[in-house]
Amino acid sequence: MMYIFVYMIFFIKNERKLYIENYGCQMNLSDSEIISSLLAEEGFFTFSKIYDADLILLNTCSIREKAESNIRRRLIEFQYIKKKKPSIIIGLLGCMAERLKKRWLEEEKIVDLVVGPDSYRALPMLISRVEDGKSSINVLFSKEENYADVNPIRLGDNGITAFVSITRGCDNMCSFCVVPFTRGRERSRDPASIIKECQKLWSQGYKEVNLLGQNVDSYFWYGGGMKKDFSKASPLQKATYLSFADLLELVARSVPKMRIRFSTSNPYDITENVLKIISHYPNICKYIHLPLQSGSTRVLELMNRRYTSEKYVSLIRKIRKIITDCAISHDIIAGFSGEFEEDHRQTLNLMEYVRYDFGYMFIYSLRTGTKAEKSLFDDVPEEIKKRRLQEILFLQKKHSYECLQAQRGKIQEVLIEGESRKSKMYWYGRNSQNAVVVFPKDSYRKGDFVKVRVKTCTSATLLGQGLEIV
């Protein structure tokens, strides 16, 4: 999924303004909040006009070619601003910064500084170097979680829901994915700092947290360091390590009235213990985002996903047996290297079996540096990729509508997050299953948990009537 958020920040000491534009996933938004906090210590605060900026930072995404193309176009637009105001500093942050490194800094010379996801603490120093006439780059990987002690400034904040990062990096090495090369190896955050952040959010009036990681089910705390180095841990560390199931239970107990979500899971890593914890604690949402990528075991092997379609279906059965009314969403890639028509049919057949509540579907785009780029041919014609994607989208839209239709007449517990975009007379919020629910305001307030009777639905939204505050 793609999120685009725009923020402005003032630098009080020298009366300068900083513009931050964020592209990509929820992890990138969380990183932008960390960046804002680190810069606030230097005197930065939010503002809103790009043409008045003295410093522009783009926090970028490399997951798909389209994201990189959009960011390149945006940087070219910024060059026109720079021509009018040569003193403006332009910085490239995030995954594209890590992946492209010196290309845009030294070869194309369209940015002044390049900073990778593990190097944001160095931003004030790097900005000073640019001011002294020196271009700056810092894309070093870390073996530790660098930002556990940072209290993020919530950007685009509704004051109700917040992201809490629990892991960084990924060890899974899927053949299509650049994340291990842009964010490094897996390392987990100290559980005490996670609990502290969640409790602070609750005390500030937040009602829901979303625990974030490239693969949250790989959370593994034994005192610090990368997961792959656990063999070097002490006997005590080995005896007392925490898994994701352990962490999820700790968070549920520490903030018992706060809703808890998490993303993203990997079918290879999610455990039965996690499912049982979700089922046991009413404040953990009954929703799992479980990327499929392909319904073909042959294609999954080419993707290095480390599970078969049969094991995926078995996991779906287990989820539905253990967790009552659990919503499930997916990621699916259309037209991966070597995908035959039969593989595509298998994906559609698996979708028909699972009947996902919703999903995120994309055409495959080859990423430089991945195993797929080095050893597989991007041999599916673009027109076939587009046709397969349309078939996947059509089927998912049908299933999503049917899932929402099944909720008619039922009573849902909805957390009010804000006003409906279509009418100020209505609230919108989400239920435990992550479905959007819209209903008349009446006397309810933002942040209330409200019992709502579902009357009808659109293709993407439940429409109802509030009954009472929970």
Automatic annotation (TrEMBL):
Q: Which residues of this UniProt protein bind [4Fe-4S] cluster 2?
A: 170, 174, 177
What residue stretch is flagged as signal peptide?
none
Q: Which Pfam families match?
A: Radical_SAM, TRAM, UPF0004
Q: Its GO CC terms?
A: cytosol
Provide the taxonomic classification: Bacteria, Pseudomonadati, Bacteroidota, Flavobacteriia, Flavobacteriales
Q: How is the cofactor bound?
A: Binds 2 [4Fe-4S] clusters. One cluster is coordinated with 3 cysteines and an exchangeable S-adenosyl-L-methionine.
Where does it reside?
Answer: Cytoplasm
Q: Does the keyword Metal-binding apply?
A: yes
* Name of this protein: tRNA-2-methylthio-N(6)-dimethylallyladenosine synthase
- SUPFAM superfamilies in the cross-refs: Radical SAM enzymes (SSF102114)
Q: Which family does it belong to?
A: Belongs to the methylthiotransferase family. MiaB subfamily.
Q: Which residues form the Radical SAM core domain?
A: 156-402
Q: Which function does this protein serve?
A: Catalyzes the methylthiolation of N6-(dimethylallyl)adenosine (i(6)A), leading to the formation of 2-methylthio-N6-(dimethylallyl)adenosine (ms(2)i(6)A) at position 37 in tRNAs that read codons beginning with uridine.
| UniProt domain TRAM: residue ranges | 405-468
| UniProt KW keywords | 4Fe-4S, Cytoplasm, Iron, Iron-sulfur, Metal-binding, S-adenosyl-L-methionine, Transferase, tRNA processing
Query: Which residues make up the binding site for [4Fe-4S] cluster 1?
Result: 25, 61, 95
Protein EC: 2.8.4.3
Reaction(s) catalysed by this chain, per the record, are:
N(6)-dimethylallyladenosine(37) in tRNA + (sulfur carrier)-SH + AH2 + 2 S-adenosyl-L-methionine = 2-methylsulfanyl-N(6)-dimethylallyladenosine(37) in tRNA + (sulfur carrier)-H + 5'-deoxyadenosine + L-methionine + A + S-adenosyl-L-homocysteine + 2 H(+)
- List the source organism: Candidatus Uzinura diaspidicola str. ASNER
**Residue ranges annotated for the MTTase N-terminal domain, each copy included:** 16-132
